[in-house]
Amino acid sequence: PPHKLKDNIISAVWSMKRKRMPGTGEILKYKARLCANGSQQTENVNYWDTYSPVVKWLSVRIMLTLTVIENLHSRSVDFVLAYPQADINVDIYMELPPGIVVDGFARKDLLLKLEQNLYGLKQGGYNWFECLKKGLLARQFVPSASDPCIYLKKDILVLVFVDDCLIFSRHKHLAD
Q1: How much is the pLDDT for 1?
Q2: Would the N or C end of the chain have less CB density within 10 A of its end CB?
Q3: pTM score, two decimals?
Q4: Nearest to residue 9, comparing CAs of 70, 120, 116, 95?
């Protein structure tokens, strides 16, 4: 049955942070991120899958141990604004965020149609993992049978933990 538009409307939430210098507490910068209020989503209307796997801690410990024993090169990667890089697979509309003013309109009269994933959506982690997995598979990485967050390719091994990856290789240029 068709769903009413109002079933797909959620509010926007601003996430504000102050980044401080360790030790002194001096403020380094202010950060703001626009998020979706996922608590307003309805299961089987505007989200289905929410599960996103993360690497097993045993896998991390083994790889860190092997890095020392086998003198492997490693690198940590943190994807910046990872979730918005993933597509969204359902129509979701969001009210304008607080503080946004459009002349001649009441804030509640305008909606934004989400074209990309946002932090706060119930399926946000799932969408990001699927996007990252698709990118790794396109680069000929193969998922491990023992851990869905380990990807292998000839001389490179990648561990995935949400929007962070650990890369291991015997060759420095491949880990970089």
Answers
A1: 41
A2: N
A3: 0.84
A4: 95
Residues of the chain with pLDDT under 50: 1-2
Full DSSP string of 40-82: G--BTTTB---------HHHHHHHHHHHHHTT-EEEEEE-TT-
DSSP 176: -
Contacts (Cβ under 8 Å, ≥6 apart) of 21: 27, 28
> In this structure, which amino acid lies at residue 68?
V
Contact 36, 94 (CB under 8 A): yes
Report yes or no: 148 and 164 within 8 Å, Cβ to Cβ: no
Report the 10 Å Cβ neighbour count for 22.
7
Q: For residues 13 and 96, what is the distance between their CA atoms, to the nearest angstrom?
A: 10
Return the DSSP state at 19. E
Cα dihedral: 122, 119, 114, 6 (round 10): 40
Handedness of CA 35, 37, 39, 43 (dihedral sign): negative
**Strands (DSSP E) found in 99-143:** 111-113, 142-143
Return all residues near 11 (Cβ < 8 A) that are at least 6 apart: 37, 40, 94, 95
